[in-house]
Amino acid sequence: MSSEVPGPDSGRNRTTGAPAAHPDDPPSSLRFGYGTNGLADLRLADALSLLADLGYDGVGLTLDHMHLDPLAPDLAARTHRVAKRLDALGLDVTVETGARYVLDPRRKHGPSLLDPDAGDRARRVDLLVRAVRVAADLGALAVHCFSGVVPDGTDTDTAWKRLTEALTPVLEAASAAGIPLAVEPEPGHLLATLADFHRLRTALGDPEPLGLTLDIGHCQCLEPRSPAECVREAAPWLRHVQIEDMRRGVHEHLPFGDGEIDFPPVLAALAATGYQGLTVVELPRHSHEGPRQAERSLPFLRHAEQAAAHPPHRPAPASPQSAPPHGAPSASPEGSSR
To answer: What is the pTM of this model?
Structure first.
């Protein structure tokens, strides 16, 4: 993808090369955002202004030291200022909790909800409860979280027991705040697939605040069904969506067009569900060119949405994808936890 399309073709977007919107195209039913974990080199105020200027509907706000630090003093006052800024810019928000080193400067995403040490698990629980309070103060659509990788020496039954016990107080806080908790299946984690989400949902008794974060790239990476089929299956529990390109069996978040996903059917399926939350671009490895990727991503998605509304003749669906081994989808540097 080049950043500029040469030539005098006025019928194309000069930033992305995508065909320009047609006056007869239906209005968008999907609401797109961009994740601040892909804008880590920007101050939060600058990142929010950028996204508003580009026409995004919202932001996936990762609580981290470079933006809204959940562990620094005066969290409530700082959150109030961010809420005012979001309101002034007309941006919706989902709170994300995937910061790599926010709790431990030496362990990526550590400690997790599966940590052998009860005190360490409690630190992650406290972070998620703080995230729920922040989300309530921001008027957020949901709080995102994930299970974590099964620690060495821990059997899966023990890991599932720790996960359900650790999430119980978080779900209680979410229920009290009226904020959905959207758990994300993450390749390589204990909770890696949609089937694992349903196992968690059943084990917890299907509590009302429990919802799902669906990462479209993860569906391409790991699920046995196509991303569009995953959207349709997930629809009743869908509270947050992350989107990027990806290849089968390789957990590497890619800019749009660099992977294998056919996006118009995915966006058509998402629109058909009536989903009202944010669909957030998730490019955490591209902060070094975050503004450029943010500028390119929204026109790509809007064009894919237009293409979904005017689909060409498509061949019969392919047979189901062959699923990589559960929990071990990738040998790429990105690995199993972004």
So the answer is: 0.86
